[in-house]
Amino acid sequence: MAREWRTAPLSPADRALCEFAAKLTHRQNEMTADDVDELRAHRLDDTAIHDAAQVIAYFNYITRIADALGVEPETFIGPWGEPPVQ
């Protein structure tokens, strides 16, 4: 689901959140009030929208910092969906 959310069986609200996250991640300069209104149309309140934006922005920030500084992924964490390496 994390990699193929567009084809995953998501609720309309979850799909809207994923669309919001993808746009904020890849085309942040195109964000408008309409993007927030779309989440409101799915009954997300302003606190939930704010929290989502904070989490999305944080993950975008921290991965860019890690990439910029050459931080290598932890070797004890396996690929997505597999159990942790013991």
Summarize the entry for a quick read.
With about 90 residues, this protein is mainly alpha-helical. The protein is about 55% helix and about 0% strand.
Write the SSE topology.
Blueprint: H1 12-26, H2 33-41, H3 46-69
Helix pairs in contact: 1-2, 1-3
Order of helices and strands: HHH
Strand-residue fraction? under 5%
Question: How does the helix and strand content classify structurally?
Answer: mainly alpha
Biggest sheet architecture: none
Helix content: 55-70%
Could you list the spans in which at least 5 consecutive residues all have pLDDT below 50? none
End-to-end Cα distance = 25 Å
Tell how many strands the DSSP assignment holds: 0
Rg calc: 15 Å
Shape descriptor reads globular
Q: Count every helix, treating DSSP H or I runs of 4 or more residues as helices.
A: 3
Mean pLDDT: 91
Polypeptide structure, described:
This protein has 86 residues and is mainly α. It contains three helices and no strands. It is globular and about 45 Å long.
Which short descriptors sum up this protein?
86 residues
